[in-house]
Amino acid sequence: DVKVTQSSRYLVKRTGEKVFLECVQDMDHENMFWYRQDPGLGLRLIYFSYDVKMKEKGDIPEGYSVSREKKERFSLILESASTNQTSMYLCASTRGQGGHRELFFGEGSRLTVL
Amino acid sequence: AQSVTQLDSHVSVSEGTPVLLRCNYSSSYSPSLFWYVQHPNKGLQLLLKYTSAATLVKGINGFEAEFKKSETSFHLTKPSAHMSDAAEYFCVVSDRTGRRALTFGSGTRLQVQP
After folding, report:
1. Is B41 an 8 Å CB contact of chain A?
2. Cβ atoms within 10 A of the Cβ of B46, count?
3. Cβ contact, residue pair B43, A33, below 8 Å
């Protein structure tokens, strides 16, 4: 089975802190994604990556950055956390190209910024 | 451009009665369409997908969906609800390139009453 692991399920941080959210997948997928999930808004794409050291902005990249130094690992970074970044963050991965592919999701990281 | 609208934010049914979760989409291309399910404190899991083959698509756990191009709809149904179906359901559209991943609806929370 494909496994996407988000190491931190629950985090509480203070405004201005730097936050790292880590995601690891074990199926050699080329493509990895970070989404933000908020009630009534569905999932919104923050950043995605199609290859090592490659990244592209999604729909809401402001206030976030990413790092992909190894194929299996995709990190989301909040340089200076703010209260409006309190949310559920979901990592996903998939193989290959094309709109028909299934995304495999981690269980999420719920971040609270005080 | 593409978009997806889930017409109900909450649906409540009794156990053993039919389930209908409604989804309308808009796409400039011939789309791929998906339904994902999210149980509490879990990541999303693929229920079913449409990729231009049969218009009636069967998924896991007895769910199915019908692609109706003339109505731009992709409603999710199940003949008989089970308590374990209580979850949040997301309708998702993708263009055929899939380059920018997927566009998610805002979600429908399904409650199943005993």
Report:
1. yes
2. 16
3. no
Quote the minimal CA–CA distance from A89 to chain B in Å: 10
DSSP characters for B91-110? EEEE-SS-TT--EE---EEE
Q: How many CA atoms lie less than 13 Å away from B7 in the CB half-sphere?
A: 11
Q: What is the mean pLDDT of residues B73-93?
A: 96
Name the token pair of B103.
Answer: 């566009």
A-chain residues within 8 Å CB-CB of B101?
33, 45, 48, 58, 103
Give the up-direction half-sphere exposure of residue B4: CA atoms within 13 A in the CB hemisphere. Answer: 29
Residue A100 pLDDT more than 80?
no
Distance (Å, rounded) from C-alpha B102 to C-alpha A107? 18
Rg of chain A (C-alpha set): 13
pLDDT digits (tens, 9 = 90+) for B85-108: 999 999 998 876 555 558 899 999
